[in-house]
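Hi! If you just cloned this repository, the fastest way to understand the data is to look at a raw example. We've pasted two of them here, unedited. The first protein comes first, obviously.
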Amino acid sequence: MKSLQKFASVHASLHNHFNSERHLVDRQTYKTRRSVALAEWQSLMA
């Protein structure tokens, strides 16, 4: 049960970071936000 809670916690953090509700924004805005999120994630993992 503890490992499930740990997984759910990490998954929720990642999902919130990368979820940008694609259907609500235009393509260019989506790509820009996605690139920024990926760059931030890469800097955190470095």
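Ok, and the second one:
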Amino acid sequence: MRLLTHNLLSCHARTCVQTSNNFPLAFKDVQLELIEAEYNEAFLRGFIPKIHWPALVAAARQLGDSSLPDQGPDVGQSMIDESLLKALHHVLLEVHVVEGQMLCPNCSHIFQIRNGIPNMLLAEHEISK
């Protein structure tokens, strides 16, 4: 699972649906793999407005990568530093969580990650109705 995906995931357990404290999910006991990906500046520039920057920086740092600054680029800014785009490319697209867990900060539900795939399914009693 890439951090690109992680930045879009939140807990949807019954106890979390009405709260705003179900994002971002925290990593625990992870196994990482670095997989080189083709650099695509246009994709990165288009995706920047969709990124929750504080969550991305926190996740990257949990995984041992401190290459991103605390503050993200101004979304309307056309001149974004090339080194920032390359660091963003690395964090979003080349860092893969192969095994581990994601933990909800609100209800402490654990979502397993196996073979790079996060299992976001909930048991029937955990689903909001």
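That's it. A detail worth noticing about the second one: Residues 3-126 form a domain with the N-terminal domain of TfIIb fold (CATH 2.20.25.10).
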